[in-house]
Specification:
The complex is a heterodimer of chains A (493) and B (614). Chain A has 493 residues and is mainly alpha-helical. Chain A contains 18 helices and 2 strands. The longest helix of chain B has 45 residues. Classes of the chains: A mainly alpha (493), B mainly alpha (614).
């Protein structure tokens, strides 16, 4: 399969969006583009599974390589494994849902959809790249539109939030860039190519310097404690689709980068720094959960809960066992779909009640059964109810963490497990305050979800259920990728 | 012949009911949804009885021992070579018994609700939730993998949450559903960590393999699990205690009982099904499932179970004597009776005659499901008629609700342990087992059986005798709420009256072999005597209106207040969660994040600006 399609479709869609004039046309072009992406993602999944079934054992499939800057040995190198396919599927799901929930955007519709499409262009490119320079290029493409999305279409303290987010992520990108250059100059071939780098021996002292740079750099995107503070303000000020993209896709760029670049290329340093990663992510998991308990605004609540949930991604990576890494990837996908849905639902509620304060709502189940039912489902997913994706991801991470027989890893795992109780507390509090209880008079004539909102919700709920009810497919999909990383980690040095 | 399709259909039919009613019920079926759900469940019940019959009388017994059959198993989530979550079916005597109990009680509740819930706007939703619960509970009892049981364990929890909060616009219902979920979630944390520990030591999540490895003295897994210890107790014992914490949460054992009384906010038929007959005994079921491990490798945990059970039985019975809301009396009585089942397991040993406690516990689970469901459904008819839960609004109802009256009386006699009703046989066996193994627990159980008789007959006399009924008969009054409500009462009453004659020792024993039941005349006379005294006191105090009860309450004021305030457990928990966790952990976390971490970032930005301006 030609992977260029996945990059070209969002790019062409964004150009097409700019060329037309009418709002109606813009929306439909964006939706067809998003649908096309989803179809392509499924084709990719199908073709990949077929290749694997027919006995292909290559680490990366469907590779394509075009010279870009030959003098610097930069080539446009694409390729996928199970992990990137999982991330691409996630992106396609979130993009189509994001397009659908923004259907009624009034302000600068054309520019808005253009930004969304550029963001998805960056995300697909990032997940497909096998060259660090190209990967970085796409990472930056995915950052800039966020600034504009929040600054123009946002709400609340939007300028502050946009600045904070852009500056922190730019700073993180700088770390990534320095780390990358370190790797580039440390190898004799002067290459940015991921596969060539993985085959070359990177000296231990270089690993010790570059690993923290790259891991922290990517980690900021994934709300690595204590660099997570862009998350609450950024998510809360962004427009609904912006929050969905930010939490659903952007945060996963970081997790993917940590795994694919930092851990995969520098296994020795990864082992050395693993305990620090575990400590920081355990703090994020618990501290994020406790901080969530105190939030009164639904969007802030979900933003803080995201800190806690993506903590599991870094926690799984830090555990460095195959099960835990698989769990971390499942958590990326699960959290991406779940949090996108969460923000979508919050957006729907806000659009109707004009408030996001938990204490001001109540009894919404009576007037909007569809929206509140989805709210229940996504809440249950967040607190790890079996049958929904969150459970599968968390349990896999726990089992992976428990594989280490020593006290430190066990204790960290037990602490991480405790978050399931705290999560239950804040989720149920939010549910019972918004959906249950007596309803306010002024809410009695609110309308339930429209077709576009229903469709968006159904698409994302399908994703949650597909992982939650039948986790074996995603487990099988991710396993080969995790195995390759494990091989690198278990190589004798 | 063993038909696997039929077994799988038993939980899948209620699941279908959940999906159909949940997705289309409101729009397309409306009032028909009750009938459709009931028919699906009837099919499920018939299949369950068929499977249980086949297991007990045809293929279950191999060489005189009831085997643990695993007719099917699929890998659901593979963690590593040896560890995986499987979705499978494990058939053994307790599974078969539970299948019958759950489907039968659920069917009764489905039928009863046709009348009880008929004016409800969310009628279809109600039946879809019942379907979800029945599915999860059935799937729980057939689980062949310890993680599979955890999955459905959580799902029954969420269906319980949905049904407690069914009247969602009542703030008390919303709060109660939240409380039930969070308290059991907290307990499940113990269960989860217990599973992680067990998976590590046994190297498997499969029940049969796990039990085999952890009970065979020579197995390296058991050696390792016993060798490592923490605070003088072996790692295996800790793991089993953690699992028991999960069980105690679900079964509302002290000190995790606080959610069950509040759960009575749900519709009464739901209380009958979930919070009396089935879900709350899941904890007992879990301990019974892992009983061989407890009995052979973690006896210390078993002693703990015995005392937790006994204390729960006693304290809950004391509280029940002081409650005035009839559903709450029944809720505490449920805790108390589950306490009996727990301590029966706790005093039991594995195999042969010493396994009497195990058999007795399962026997009591079975009879209790019958009479407690009956009590709740009777309470439902009373509440349906009076529109109040309070005892003071009742009295003299025996002529107006004749069927309810008779069936309630049968259930009271059964729970009080009066021969020949079913509760007598199971309770007598439990006390016999306790007498042989732990005399302290025996005396607690004996005293509690007197209390049980007292509070049940206090309830009976207060509802059906006491003052004369003075209210007006409503225009739509039908005797006992009509056929759909009477039919389940009668069926359950027949079950309650006769279930005691089932020779349980022939079917359900700790090791699968037949256990000859012995009858000890002296030992069975004593509990009956205690019960009769209890009934006699209740009759004196409550048959006619008088102020003797208040005088007695005043004379033991301290104890009475403590009991009627549920020994202040709610307040203690509130203190720990609100004052300690909320104020000392959550608030500082949020503050720290906003002011320190964020402040540092902002500070960096501001100082950069400041310097650049200079």
């Amino acid at each position: 399969m030609n992977l260029l399609w996945l990059i070209l479709v969002p790019l062409l869609t964004s150009i097409a969006v700019l060329l037309v004039q009418k709002k109606q046309q813009v929306k439909w072009i964006a939706l067809s583009g998003a649908t096309f992406q989803l179809v392509l993602a499924f084709i990719l999944l199908f073709v990949y599974k077929n290749e694997i079934a027919s006995g292909n054992t290559d680490s990366f499939l469907f590779q394509q390589k075009y010279e870009w800057f030959p003098s610097w040995h930069i080539s446009f190198h694409l390729g996928v494994d199970g992990i990137s396919i999982a991330m691409i599927l996630l992106t396609a799901f979130v993009v189509i849902a994001g397009v659908l929930v923004s259907w009624n955007t009034e302000k600068m519709t054309k520019e808005f959809y253009f930004m969304l499409m550029i963001l998805s262009f960056g995300a697909y490119g990032f997940f497909l790249s096998l060259n660090l320079f190209v990967l970085f290029f796409f990472l930056e493409i995915a950052v800039i539109p966020k600034y504009l999305l929040i600054g123009i279409w946002g709400s609340g303290k939007k300028e502050y939030a946009a600045n904070k987010l852009a500056l922190m992520l730019m700073g993180a990108s700088a770390l990534v860039l320095v780390g990358m250059l370190g790797l580039y100059f440390s190898n004799s071939q002067r290459t940015f190519d991921l596969i060539e780098l993985s085959q070359s021996e990177i000296p231990v002292y270089i690993q010790r310097i570059c690993f923290p740079l790259l891991f922290v750099g990517f980690g900021v995107f994934t709300a690595l404690f204590p660099f997570h503070t862009w998350v609450p303000d950024g998510h809360s000020s962004a427009p609904t689709a912006g929050s969905m993209f930010l939490a659903g896709i952007s945060m996963k760029l970081g997790g993917y980068g940590c795994l694919r670049v930092a851990v995969y290329l520098m296994p020795i340093a990864a082992k050395e720094y693993a305990n620090i990663i575990i400590v920081l992510s355990t703090i994020a998991i618990l501290y994020g959960a406790f901080a969530t308990m105190m939030q009164k605004d639904l969007k802030y609540m979900n933003a803080y809960s995201s800190i806690s949930h993506v903590g599991f991604v870094l926690f799984g990576i830090g555990m460095l066992t195959q099960t835990a890494i698989t769990g971390a990837v499942i958590q990326m996908v699960s959290h991406g779909v779940m949090t996108a849905l969460f923000f979508a639902v919050i957006g729907m509620i806000y659009e109707r009640t004009h408030t996001r304060q938990i204490n001001e709502m109540g009894g919404l189940l009576k007037v909007m059964p569809f929206i509140t039912t989805v709210f229940f489902i996504v809440g249950f997913c967040s607190l790890g109810l079996p049958g929904l994706s969150g459970f599968v991801a968390e349990v896999t991470v726990f089992m992976g963490g428990w594989e280490h027989p020593d006290f430190f890893h066990r204790f960290a795992t037990v602490l991480a497990c405790m978050s399931i109780v705290v999560t239950a507390v804040y989720i149920l509090r939010a549910i019972s305050k918004t959906a249950m209880g007596p309803i306010k008079e002024s809410y009695l004539n609110l309308k339930d979800a429209r077709w576009n909102e229903k469709l968006a919700a159904i698409i994302l709920v399908t994703g949650i259920l597909a992982i939650g009810i039948a986790p074996f497919w995603i487990n099988d999909l991710i396993k080969p990728g995790a195995e390759i990383i494990m091989q690198k980690l278990s190589m004798p040095h | 012949m063993l038909n696997t399709t039929f077994i799988v259909l038993i939980p899948l039919l209620p699941l279908a009911s959940f999906l159909i009613m949940g997705l289309f019920g409101k729009k397309y079926f409306k009032n028909a949804s009750g009938i459709i759900a009931t028919i699906l469940l009837l099919a499920s019940t018939i299949l369950a009885i068929y499977i249980a019959y086949g297991y007990f009388f045809e293929y279950g017994k191999i060489n005189g021992i009831y085997e643990k059959l695993i007719p099917l198993k699929y890998t659901w989530l593979q963690f590593s070579e040896s560890l995986s979550i499987d979705m499978g079916v494990l058939l053994d005597p307790i599974t078969c018994m539970m299948l019958v109990v759950i489907t039968f009680i659920s069917l009764m509740v489905h039928i009863y609700s046709l009348a009880y819930m008929k004016d409800e706007e969310r009628f279809a939703t109600y039946y879809s939730f019942l379907g979800l619960f029945t599915f999860s509970m059935l799937a729980l009892v057939i689980s062949s993998n310890i993680f599979q049981i955890y999955i459905f364990w959580e799902l029954v929890g969420v269906s319980s949450f949905l049904l407690i909060g069914f009247y969602y616009d009542k703030p008390s219902a919303a709060a109660a559903s939240k409380k039930a979920f969070i308290v059991t979630r907290f307990a499940d944390l113990g269960f989860l960590i217990g599973i992680l520990m067990l998976s590590f030591y046994s190297g498997t999540l499969d029940f049969n393999t796990l039990i085999e490895r952890l009970t065979t003295a020579a197995s390296p897994e058991l050696q390792a699990a016993l060798a490592s210890s923490f605070m003088g107790v072996s790692a295996l014992t800790w793991a089993m205690i953690l699992v028991f914490i999960g069980a105690a949460g679900k079964s509302a054992m002290f000190p995790l009982q606080i959610w069950l009384p509040d759960a009575m906010e749900g519709p009464t038929p739901v209380s009958a099904l979930i919070h009396a007959a089935t879900m709350v005994v899941a904890g007992v079921f879990l301990v019974a499932r892992l009983f061989p491990v407890y009995a052979s490798s973690a006896q210390d945990a078993l002693v703990l179970i015995a005392y937790v059970g006994a204390i729960s039985a006693l304290l809950a019975a004391m509280i029940a004597c002081t409650q005035t809301d009839i559903k709450r009396v029944l809720a505490f009585s449920t805790i108390s009776q589950i306490g009996y089942m727990m301590f029966a397991l706790g005093v039991s040993k594995y195999g042969g005659e010493n396994g009497l406690g195990y058999t007795a516990s399962m026997f009591h689970l079975f009879t209790h499901a019958m009479f407690k469901a009956l009590l709740f459904l009777c309470a439902g008819s009373v509440i349906h008629f009076i529109h109040s839960n309070e005892m003071k609004d009742m009295g003299g109802l025996r002529k107006i609700l004749p069927v309810t009256h008779i069936t309630f009386l049968i259930a009271c006699l059964a729970i009080a342990g009066i021969p020949p009703f079913s509760g007598f046989f199971s309770k007598e066996e439990i006390l016999l087992a306790a007498y042989q193994n732990n005399i302290v627990v025996y005396w607690i159980g004996l005293f509690t059986s007197g209390l049980t008789a007292f509070y049940m007959f206090r309830l009976y006399f207060a509802i059906f005798w006491n003052k004369e009924f003075s209210g007006m008969l409503h225009r739509e009054y039908r005797v006992d709420g009509g056929f759909a409500m009477i039919f389940p009462l009668i069926l359950l009453a027949i079950g309650t009256a006769t279930a005691g004659f089932i020779p349980f020792g022939n079917f359900i024993t700790s090791d699968g072999k037949i256990l000859e039941s012995k009858f000890h005349l002296q030992l069975s006379i004593i509990p009956v005597a205690f019960a009769l005294i209890g009934i006699f006191i209740a009759m004196k105090l409550y048959k006619k209106q008088n102020d003797a009860p208040n005088k007695i309450a005043a004379s033991i004021q301290g104890l009475y207040n403590a009991a009627s305030n549920k020994f202040y457990f709610d307040e203690i928990y509130l203190f720990v969660t609100k004052k300690i966790l909320f104020n000392l952990v959550a608030k500082p976390s949020a503050w720290f994040d906003k002011h320190i971490v964020d402040g540092l970032i902002d500070g960096t930005g501001n100082s950069a600006q400041f310097i650049s301006k200079k």
